[in-house]
Every structure is written in structure tokens, then in C-alpha cells.
Amino acid sequence: MSKFGEYVKSSYDELMHKVSWPTFKELQSSAVVVAVATLVIALIVFVMDVVFGVQSWGWKGILGYFYQLING
User: Fold this and answer.
1) How far is it, in rounded angstroms, from Cα 54 to Cα 18?
2) CB 53 within 8 A of CB 61
3) Helix/strand/coil for 1
4) DSSP 4-64
5) How far apart are CA 64 and CA 54, in angstroms?
6) H-helix or E-strand containing 71?
7) How far apart are CA 44 and CA 53, in angstroms?
8) Integer angstrom CA distances of residue 59 from 42, 49, 64, 67
9) Are 64 and 53 in contact (CB under 8 A)?
10) Are 43 and 37 within 8 A, CB to CB?
């Protein structure tokens, strides 16, 4: 059990004295970057869905019409 106690003590020491924690301002700016990147990627995926075909909307997309042209 002493190994577990040493592990907990060393973990606590590392978290309190060796880890550099970001400030609230740094966390806010990181969160904004993540949110913007997420929205941009979601928009790209949406555009790809529309361009390449969303069957539930009745739009086959460019590839759908291309396959229809090839298959007759």
C-alpha cells in the first residue's frame, strides 16, 4: 500500500508544483479557436454533403448525376 501512497503524493506534487496551468484568458482564447475550427469543418462537411448528394433532399449531387449519366 505504500507504493500507492507514494504514487498519490508524487502525482499531487507534480500537479501542484511542476505543471504550468493556463490562465482563464488563455483558456478562453483556446476555446474560441476550437469553436471556430469546429464550425468551419462542419460547414465544409455540409457543403460536401450538398455537392455530392443528400438523398433525403432529392438532390443526387454532382456524383449522382454523373453515375446516372454513365449507367444510363
Assistant:
1) 51
2) yes
3) coil
4) HHHHHHHHHHIIIII--PPPHHHHHHHHHHHHHHHHHHHHHHHHHHHHH-BGGGTB-HHHH
5) 10
6) helix 61-71
7) 14
8) 20, 10, 8, 13
9) yes
10) no
Contact by Cβ (8 Å): 50, 59: yes
The Cα 19–Cα 21 span in angstroms is: 6
Best CA proximity match to 67, nearest among 53, 57, 56: 53
Q: Which three cell numbers stand for residue 39?
A: 464550425
Distance CA 24, CA 38 (A): 21
pLDDT digits (tens, 9 = 90+) for 44-64: 988 887 777 666 666 677 777
> pLDDT of 17-48, one tens digit each?
999 989 999 999 999 999 999 999 999 988 88
